[in-house]
Amino acid sequence: MKPPILLSIFTAASASLCCITPVLAIVAGTSSLASSFSWLDPLRPYFIGATFLVLGTTWYGVMKPQKKDDCGCEPEKRSFFKSKGFLSTITILSLLLTAFPSYSRFFFQKSESITALQDQTKNKKIELTVNGMTCSSCELHIESEVKKLPGVSFIKVSYEKKSATIEYDEQKVDIEKIIASINSTGYKIDQSK
Predict the structure, then answer these.
(1) pLDDT tier at 111, thresholds 50, 70, 90
(2) pLDDT for residue 115
(3) Domains of the chain and any CATH numbers
(4) Helices of type H across the chain
(5) Backbone angles phi, psi at 82, to 5 degrees
(6) Is residue 157 helix, strand or coil?
(7) What contacts 39, CB < 8 A, 6 or more positions away?
(8) Closest Cα partner for 18 from 45, 38, 44, 47?
(9) What is the reported pLDDT for 163?
């Protein structure tokens, strides 16, 4: 039963790897690796299906009544790794991994707008097209990096629109630094527009 359990964890983690990576990248301080697994996003439904198929098959094997031997002996007691309790733990872990994109935003600092106490007329507002985002983890990853720049008073990123709206003070930061900050996360600014 160990290979199917390992397979269910692998497929569940693979289903959300593109969203787990930005969180791990921020924790590890290697933000440029965050978008490395965005190519997995189109495969997500297949990984989720494989996870449920493996878990369903494994649960069927565990729940199926054991046959008594011809001698009338009791069936052999299962080890912990073949028990319903262990399989329940693996099922919960797999479900949490599969659902990661829906609760990943809780791993980032609260995404509140940075409000500048200075004269708002000095601020410039731009909207940039960002490629490579697949979920809200990507949005929050970019926002957390750009917020570190001095002079940025507002940032809102949308993976659905593939955009980042930024207000900044031109005297403290320039557009090239903002673009470099976003590109350093592994997501790329579309400069063709």
Answers:
(1) very low
(2) 45
(3) 2-103 (no CATH), 108-190 (3.30.70.100)
(4) 2-15, 17-28, 44-63, 84-98, 100-103, 136-146, 175-184
(5) -115, 10
(6) strand
(7) 18
(8) 38
(9) 93
Q: Which amino acid is at 81?
A: F
Q: Quick one: which of 18, 34, 16 has its CA closest to 183?
A: 34
What is the Cα–Cα distance from 88 to 93, expressed in whole angstroms?
Answer: 9
Tokens of 93: 């872990």
Tracing tokens 């297949």 back to the chain, one arrives at 46
Taking every pair of C-alpha atoms in the chain, what is the biggest distance, in angstroms? Answer: 89
Is the pTM above the cut of 0.70? no
| Backbone torsion region of residue 186, taken as left when φ is above 0, otherwise alpha when ψ lies between -120 and 50, otherwise beta | left
127, 157 contact by CB (below 8 A): no
